[in-house]
Amino acid sequence: MTSKKYYLDRMKENARRRLTTWVMMIISFLMVFPLVAICGAEMMRNDLTAKNYRREMVEFFKMVLGANPMLCLAVMACGLIAGFMAFIYLHGRDKVDMYGSIPESAKARFVKIYAVTAIGFAVIYGVMAFVALLIGLAYGGISGGVLLVAFCNFIEMFLIFMAYFSIAALAVLLTGRPAIAVCGTLVFMGYEFVVRFLAMLYLESFFKTIYSASEMMFGDQLYTAPIYNALSSSAERIDAGHTLQYINYQGMLRAFILFVVVTGIVYYSYRKRASEAAGNSVAFPALKAWLKLFVLIPFSLLVLIASYGMFEKFGVSTILLTVVVVAIAGGFIEAMFQSDIKAIVKKPHHTIIALVVTGIVFVIFKQDLFGVDTYIPKESSFESAGLYLYDMDDSYKDGSAIMKDMKIKDYDLVREIAENNVTDNEALEDGDFGNRCAVEYRLKNGRCVRREYCLMAKEAQKIYKTLLGMPEYWKGIHDCLNADSLDNATEYGWTLDSQFADDYESEDKKLSKKNTEETAQLLEAYLEDVNHLDPEKLLSERELDPVYIMYKDDESTQYERLPITPSFQNTIAFLEGHGYAGKMQKALEEPSKAIKDIYIYPEYSEEDEVYVIQDEAAIKEIYEAHPELFVSSGFAYNYKQMGMAPDGEYNQDTVIRSPMNVSITYKNMESDSVEISAEEFEKYFKKYATLSE
To answer: Considering the entire predicted model, what is its pTM?
Structure first.
């Protein structure tokens, strides 16, 4: 029989647990709502102008009251702690007996726990969000869109909170000790991260094709990844822009499904859990084997990939190390389950099962049984593709943006890239470190598949030469050449800024309406040149000073760089005809006449030797025979660097690939620098060069 004093003490303890949970929620949401709102708004108010104040402030409060990583993490943490605190009494047998003696059904008690928790979260979250709304109203940052975002986000966060509440409750219900329950909570919460991480490790280790596993095997479409998707989608929505992009309908559905499924399991476990389970390592003995395998299988996979990387091959050493480590881990788990260190040698068949599953997964990946590595879309299903060359395109814009804007229809080209893919080890022949490129296949059924490939220098050069003759490639790496760019040049204030302009420092010239119209005309001329480019000729030319297409607003200046070589005849004619020919004429003169001397510095050499060429006739002869050797930037330089492994470490043994730095000084005292190989030095420079003092 439960005494009145004991009953009251337990009620006070329960009240303290709930009060602790509520205080934690109050502090968390105070930080992510009112404090962030008032601090951020105050900082923005000092920086914004009257013209864009309202728009920027509204966008800021959409971010504060919508999903963001800080809020999402706070909701997840509060849900886990609340679930743990609400059901932790089940780990004390006397407490379970006391609650069992109360004339109240288990169903009613379960519903009460969930209802009190849900109401407490809704009230605390609602009050703090309302305070943030009042702050937004004071700063003029509230609109109908903000209210819609706040309401929808409340629903999403409520579902996420309850889902994580149930995850923690499940960990408590399946165990009988607080420490094991905490471990269980972390395992349940992080299990999808573990699976994703392992999948990516296996893909990168055993496939020649490297790509993001999350985009293919565990895409955003799947409901089995609510944790990852909640965090990633909240990060993406910070800069969403459009009101509807702040609302994650799929996230709500995922959280709801997770909440319903896990809560159903929790309720069933709550009804079936015996009071004698308090103090045991696992509340349901029949689940011990399953829980052990639940932990042991991903651990076994991780050990195999770690040993594979350690020995850099699959052999006896890899197998032995994996078996020994997994066997020890399985023994410790069994010892923890049975609270007896002697149990470390018991039930080895669980370890054997984990190792067998690991072996099956290894074979699937190693032998590419699902055809992931050899995947190339059929021509009948292919619509277009985007390409990103890591060593060439990184000076323009983000790779994802380049692939998104690029619409290459040449199926044979992208197929050739896929078929010539090699592993990194294969690409190390003769100092060739490989050239990485990404391909985004867009299929007619709306699916988008991304792959990353590694090409040998010879193949990479051939692909790059082909791309330079494709207008789709240029439109992908240059925003201003896309479909709407010519209209935007006038409507949104694109302006021309060129180092060729005689009045380069004139703000009036750069911001005039005439200049904006000229920009549209320049883009038309540039696009005409792009449509008729000869890659062979382009790769033998020295890049001239570029033209910059600029966009100015109240906060910053953004620009895009348009490279120009003598092949861009229409562009050059436009610049010369509109007062931008001052430096252009000088740039088009024969460069060899402007060169004063050439210094060659053999890098990575034990001898400290510097060579110099100052004879004008020798400089002219070298330049006329091989102008590409003098190119220090632009297309020809990128093309040349593909064969010199710019991302690799040079080796003294690979003399033909060892670089030598060539410093070119012009008569106007400007200088240039380019790297050549030791072979090129011997072939083109050495007979003219003398040792410098």
So the answer is: 0.64
